[in-house]
Write a structure and sequence with these properties.
The chain has 263 residues and is of the alpha/beta class. The protein contains 9 helices and 7 strands, in the order αβαβαβαβαβααβααβ. Strands 3-2-1-4-5-6-7 form a 7-stranded parallel sheet, with helices on both faces. Helix 2 links the parallel strand 1 and strand 2. The relative contact order is 0.13.
Length: 263
C-alpha cells in the first residue's frame, strides 16, 4: 500500500458521517456551541442543552437534526427530562458532551463558603447528574460515550484574580477529573466509555473578564503563543466520542497549547 493510498483511505474515513445522537450541554456559547456546530456539520443528531434558551436560538441554526432544549444540570429533573426528550425526538442516545460550567475568579481570601458550594454544585454535582442520567439510558443498549470537561487549571493551582480561575473553579474541575475516572471504571463493564477533555485557556466568554495584561502574561506560558479557539477543543471532544476512540476510557485529553510546560 503506497503513501498516497494511505492518505486517500484516511481522507475517506475522516469524511464519513458521524451517525450518532449526542446531547451537548453548555451549547449556547463557547466550546459547547462549537461542539454543536461541528457535530451537525458531520451528520450527527444533536440536542443542544442550555439554560440560556434565547442564546441557543440566536447562535444555533434551525435544523431537523438539532433540537434545542432549555435546562439546567443542577436540576435532576431537567437532566432526566432531556434524556427522555432526546430518545423521544431522535429515537436513541449515543453520546453526551458536557461543556456546561460556572466560572469563579475569587481568590482564597475573597471566597465565601456559599460561593464555593455554588460552583461545586454546578460543576461537580451537575456534572454527575447529567452523566448519570445519560448512563442510565445508555445501559439499556450497553453502549455509549460520555465526554466531560475539566480544565488545565487543575495542573497549576491557579490563584484567581484578574478574571482567571480561582480555587473554587480549579477544585471543581479536579472533582470532574476524579468523577471521570470513577464513572469510567463503573460503566466500562456496561459498554459505556467515559473520558474528559481538558482545555487550556480558550477564546470563550469565560475569559471575558481577563485584563489585557493578564491575557498577555498567560499567552507567554503557551509555546504556541496564543489561546485556543473553541473549535480546536471541540475537535478533541468529537474524537473522544467517536468510534475512533473505541478503546479509550478514563482518560483526560489535554488540549492546552503546551501550557503545561509552564514557566
Amino acid at each position: 500500500m503506497t503513501g498516497n493510498t494511505v492518505f486517500i483511505l484516511h481522507k475517506k474515513k475522516m469524511g464519513q458521517k458521524m451517525r450518532k445522537t449526542v446531547i451537548v450541554t453548555g451549547a449556547a456559547s463557547g466550546i459547547g456551541l462549537a461542539c454543536t456546530k461541528l457535530l451537525h456539520e458531520r451528520g450527527a443528531k444533536v440536542v443542544a442543552f442550555d439554560p440560556q434558551f434565547e442564546k441557543l436560538n440566536q447562535n444555533i441554526p434551525s435544523s431537523d437534526n438539532i433540537s434545542k432544549y432549555k435546562g439546567d444540570v443542577t436540576s435532576e429533573n431537567d437532566c432526566i427530562d432531556v434524556i427522555h426528550h432526546t430518545t423521544t425526538h431522535f429515537g436513541s442516545l449515543d453520546g453526551l458532551i458536557h461543556c456546561g460550567a460556572a466560572h469563579s475568579s475569587l481568590r482564597w481570601n475573597e471566597l465565601e463558603p456559599e460561593e464555593m458550594n455554588r460552583i461545586l454544585n454546578i460543576n461537580v454535582t451537575g456534572t454527575f447528574q447529567i452523566a448519570r442520567a445519560a448512563a442510565n439510558e445508555m445501559t439499556k443498549s450497553e453502549k455509549g460515550s460520555i465526554v466531560l470537561t475539566t480544565s488545565a487549571s487543575i495542573l497549576f493551582g491557579v490563584t484567581g484574580g484578574n478574571g482567571q480561575g480561582g480555587p473554587a473553579y480549579a477544585s471543581s474541575k479536579g472533582g470532574v477529573l476524579a468523577l471521570t475516572r470513577c464513572l469510567a471504571r463503573s460503566l466500562g463493564p456496561k459498554g459505556i466509555r467515559v473520558n474528559a477533555v481538558s482545555p487550556g485557556i480558550t477564546n470563550t466568554p469565560m475569559i471575558a473578564h481577563y485584563t489585557e495584561e493578564k491575557k498577555q502574561t498567560m499567552k507567554e506560558r503557551f509555546p504556541l503563543g496564543r489561546f485556543a479557539e473553541p473549535k480546536e477543543i471541540a475537535e478533541g471532544a468529537l474524537f473522544l466520542i467517536s468510534d475512533a476512540a473505541s478503546f479509550m476510557t478514563g482518560e483526560n485529553m489535554h488540549i492546552n497549547g503546551g501550557s503545561n510546560f509552564g514557566s
